[in-house]
Sequence to fold (640 residues):
Amino acid sequence: MIRDEELLKQNLQLMENWPTVLEDNVKPEYLELYLKRKAAVQAYINTDTSLLAICQKYGLYKSDFYRLLKRCLLLHTDGRPFGFRALIPHFRVEKRKLTKFETLLEEHPKLRESLEKDFLNKKKKGELREFNMSLRKIHQYFIQNCIKSGIDLNEYPLNTKTKAKKSVERYLHKLKDSHFISSAAKFGDDANMKAKNTGSVLTESEMTNIIRPLERVEFDGHKIDASIALIYTTPEGDQVIDTINRIWILSIIDVATRSILGYHLCVNQEYSSDDVLMCIRNAIKPWEPMQLTIPGLEYKEDVGFPSYLIPEMQYAIWDELCYDNAKANLANIVQETLRKFVGCSVNAGPVATPVRRAFIERFFKTLESKGYQRLINTTGSGPKDPRRRKNSNEIATDYEIHVDHIHEITDVLIAEYNATPHSSLTGLTPLQILRQRIDRGMFINMLPNEKRAEFLFFTQKVKRTVRGNITKGIRPYIYYEGVRYVNDLLVNTYSLVGKKLILAVNIDDIRFVKAYLEDGSELGNLTATGKWGLRHHSLRERKAINRLKNNGEIHINISDDPIEIYHNYLMKNSSSKKIRSKLADFQRNQVSKKKRYKADTTDKGVMSDSVHNDSQYKSRSASNKKQEKSFEKLRRTIQF
Fold:
């Protein structure tokens, strides 16, 4: 063996990563010899001492030394060199002989394949197979496959008493180690998710200790464990109280300070891209305390959100946002808003993987355990939760606990959360940590003034071709989501027919769109024709109405109010839980839009009396003594 420079470099590189040996656990009778071998190898690699001198010093033959060095460089099954482990006396590094069972699988690969399919639940698309087979069942199939493979009854394993059952069991245990993710999937979705998306090695991003406020924030949605009442008036004038138990809270938390920047409640079956954008908007725009209607419920002193209590946090924006790959989060408008409007990077992790967004998930657990699950209408964390109220729906309707009450409770809960000491923050509150770090000069990015208009948070750009036909007397217009849009300039400029316009669409209110020519010059606001241009409605609501119209479930004439027809449809079909959620979402949006946008004259008097408003609930609350009693119970739960 020649000691050349190339081999030396290779050995040096390998030795840096060699697995070590816990020398205290080496048998006493072997320890002295092991230490001599280790010192000899280290001297050979790290010094210029001749091999002859090394062997003489440590009492080794040159042939033995070369053998030991080769053993150290062999690869273990874990992918690393044996390293110093190979120097332990009587430590086996050679590949052992195959057992009878292993030889059988080598000679009959289809047997190995069938065992793996049965144990790891592998199947082709559309194939029906038993899930999570028992060992007994897998062994039965193994015997059948042995016979199909042409193995005689007088050959192994069919000639043994147990038909190699123990060998099959040992092989399945090895499969469990070598196929960790597939094995974990046998124990449910939660185990599969954690096995697939977590590991012992953290990414560089996860290892970074975030201390600067808004350097990284986390976003996620969580279903609140509570039933709520839905109160509405039918087109016939009858007042109905029903229940829904699907209400989502979407939140954004600052990783460095644990401060909740903003949140949004959604009462649909699933939250949409509109809801994600609303949560982003609420996290950036300055928060204001709500006008609380629950008797006795109030904000304590010095509680609230960062954008209200810390001037530097008004319109503050973050550098990086972490969320999962849920469909709503990946919508083009959400991606565009985050990258171009907010100007942050996006770190999209796997769906339903809370371990990747530990801070927001911890917040949701705190909110549930110290808030929602203490309400009298809680549904608990699951069917076996002792806090679960079996009659939660009846309680919600009996006490008329509606979404506005949950909104008020949530607002107070989060305001107090931000002012509550955290053990992970050395006993300080998120607001105190945030204030201290800003005072120490840590930089906060701000949203520019020109981007702070309400509609800009929900704006997406689309292209549409100008239509028109002078021979038929049809003036120029553009067509967007089933409705014509025009303004005075467009209808009188026939030269634009056939040309493309860029539309800036506020998806939260699509009565109007802003049009630009392809060179970037502004054409002005275009208004939806007919009664589409009178009532506040979102892109999501427009699409829902068009879908019902195309399916023949509703009919809209030119003189009809499509928003009112849609509202009536939801009320008539509210026996469905899905429709009830849509009705609650619609009613809530109609009220919130009036608060977000200044109501114009065309909108006055158009709102149906059947759509609830704040004063309606206040008057109901004041006259209901039983409800006031329940509010007192609710109020007592609002404390961390």
